Amino acid sequence: MNFDPNNLPFDAVWIPVIIALAIWSGIWKAIGLYRAGADRSVGWFIVMFILNTVGILEIIYIFAVSRPRRDSATHARA
């Protein structure tokens, strides 16, 4: 059995794209899960933890659903 690099199941060009998508998704997932945990949104936390939507669901939660954050410097002065 000889190894033929031209006979791979997918082009090696896709490997950087897959790595970039994994990093992108991981960053948004971490931020989304942190925000859902801080907001005590158990349902959103579970859904975001289980589903992998390449960051789309997490972005929707962060910018459309989650409670807006106050600036800590402004909040401390008030």
What's the SSE blueprint?
Elements: H1 14-38, H2 42-50, H3 56-65, H4 72-77
Helix pairs in contact: 1-2, 1-3
Kindly list the characteristics that best describe this protein.
78 residues; mainly alpha
Report on the architecture of this protein.
The chain is mostly helical. It has a domain at 14-66. Helices cover 64% and strands 0% of the residues. The chain contains four helices and no strands. The protein has helices at residues 14-38, 42-50, 56-65, 72-77. The termini are far apart.
Largest sheet: none
**Helical content, roughly?**
55-70%
What's the Cα radius of gyration? 19 Å
Q: First CA to last CA: what distance? A: 73 Å
Mean pLDDT: 84
Helix segment tally: 4
Backbone structural class: mainly alpha
Which residue ranges are poorly predicted, with pLDDT under 50 across at least 5 consecutive positions?
none
Tell me what portion of residues adopts beta-strand conformation: under 5%
Form type: elongated
Count the E strands.
0
N-to-C SSE series?
A: HHHH
